[in-house]
Structures are given as structure tokens and as C-alpha cells.
Amino acid sequence: MSLAIALPAQPSLASRILHATPIVGHIARDISRDISTIYYVLTILLTLLVLAIQTWGLAALVLTAVAFVPVMFTLLILITLP
Questions:
Q1: How many CA atoms lie within 13 A of 19 on its CB side?
Q2: In a domain, 61, yes or no
Q3: Inside any domain, residue 37
Q4: How many structural domains is the chain composed of?
């Protein structure tokens, strides 16, 4: 007679790396526990962007847009895959 014990699924390597990073990992753990935390994070990031634009002007807005170019290319590639 064999007793099969179901082990919990191991998180992937990417998940372990994400959760191991200092600031991003803490936020990722909070979001995995409570999904409404993402709205607080987005509000904080938007506030930081507005304060950066008020402080440094158009340069902060341009650098933010340039930083999001790889993200948008990745999203465009992902949505066009069959």
C-alpha cells in the first residue's frame, strides 16, 4: 500500500527571482496576497511622475516615454503572436 502525498507546486525560477529582489519582490508579494494593492502602486508611480515633471519639466516626461519603448514593443509582439 502506497501513500501518495501531494507536494505543493514549486514556484518557477522567474517567480523566485522576482520575489527575491528587495523592493519589487516586496510589492509582488503584497500584490499576490491582495490584488487591490496594485491600485496603490499605480497611484504612487503616477504621483512620482507628476512630481518629476513639475521638478525637471519636459525632460522627465521624455525620459519616461523612452523608458517605456521596450515595454510597448514587447506588448505589441505578444499581442500579435498567433
A1: 11
A2: yes
A3: yes
A4: 1
**Structural domain of 53:** 14-80
Mean residue pLDDT of the chain comes to 88
- Burial of 23: CB neighbours in 10 Å, binned 0-12, 13-18, 19+: exposed
Range of lowest pLDDT (7-11, 20-24, 33-37): 7-11
- Which cell goes with 28? 509582488
Integer Cα distance of 56 and 37 in angstroms: 29
Q: Count the helix, strand and coil residues of the chain and give each as a percent rounded to the nearest 5.
A: 75, 0, 25
Q: Which three cell numbers stand for residue 23?
A: 523592493
Q: What is the DSSP letter of 21?
A: S
Residue 9 lies in a domain: no
Closest of 43, 41, 21, 16 to residue 30, by C-alpha: 41
| Per-residue cell: 30 | 503584497
Q: What is the pTM of this model?
A: 0.64
